[in-house]
Amino acid sequence: MTEKELVSNFFIEGCKNKNYDLVMTYLADDYIDHSPAGARSNQDAVGILKAVAQMFGNLQVEVLDIFAESGMVATRIQYRALHIGECLGIAATGKELVFEALENFKVCEEKIVESWGCWPDKQIEQMLMN
């Protein structure tokens, strides 16, 4: 599997299919997430995916852009979902959200070992409040 395929499959299996056991095989045991979520293992990362699934129902992800070079994979992802659970301190609204996020990954020996991500929290909050 190429680095781009690995990262694309991470989004598909983790967000869309909720195939957490398979996602565990994509991530190194000592995976580090440098985003505010701050996972420090593949188990932490799966916990974050499960928390996202509780906030957002019918979650769909589309990889809009993906680039890979020298073990680094950069992505621009579009998320589409229904707000079904508390997010950013806001109770479920049932609103449909559509937003983009930038997420970058370091891949080593066919495992995702690190990531850096940025979700547009202020934009999401505004969509939920309006």
Fold topology:
Elements: H1 3-16, H2 20-26, E1 27-33, H3 42-55, E2 56-69, E3 72-83, E4 96-108, E5 111-118, H4 121-129
Parallel strand pairs: 1-5
Antiparallel strand pairs: 2-3, 3-4, 4-5
Give a written overview of the molecule.
By secondary structure, the chain is of the alpha+beta class. Helix content is 34%, strand content 42%. It has helices spanning 3-16, 20-26, 42-55, 121-129, and strands at 27-33, 56-69, 72-83, 96-108, 111-118. The chain has a 5-stranded mixed β-sheet, sandwiched between helices. Helix 1 packs antiparallel against helix 2 (20-26). The longest helix is centred in the first third of the chain and has 14 residues, at 3-16. It starts with a helix and ends with a helix. The relative contact order is 0.19.
